[in-house]
Amino acid sequence: SNPCLPLPVLQAAHCQMIKDLSACLLGQSLRVDCRYENKTSNPLTYEFSITKDNRKHVIHSTISVSENVYRSRANVTMHKNLVCLYLQSFTTSDEGVYMCELRATNDYTVNQIKNITVIKDKLEKCAGFSLLIQNTSWLLLLLLSLPLLQAVDFVSL
User: Per the UniProt record, which residue ranges are transmembrane (predicted)?
Assistant: First the structure.
C-alpha cells in the first residue's frame, strides 16, 4: 500500500514489493512462499520470523541471527521472484504470525514486510510439483514430445 517514494537523486525509485505471502503443508514440513516483484538486480536479503506470545523469533535470516531452536529445522530456497521457507517437523507449537521481510542492497524502499497467520488445522497441502514444473517445464515438454518425435522418425523411414 506504500507508494514508492522517488529518491531525491535523479534515479528511478526502486520498489521491491512483496506481492504475496502464502503457507501450505508439505508432508511434515511447513512451506511459506514469499513472492515479490523484482525491480532491481541488487542482492536480496531476507528474514523469516514468527511472532507468538507477543515475542518475535527469527527462524531463518540473512539480515540477523536466527534462533537455535529453529535454525536446525529451517532452510530457505530462492527462486526468481520467490523466497521459500521450509520448516521441518511442523507442529501446533509452531503456530503463529509468520513474517517475511525482504531487503535489496542499496534499496531505500521501506516496509518490505508481509505477515500471515499460520494455524495447522487451517493449512492446505502444497500443490504438487508446481514449483518443480515451473523450473522444468521445457524438460517436461521435451519428454512429452519424445513419443511424437519418434513417431515422426518412424514415418520418415
Answer: none
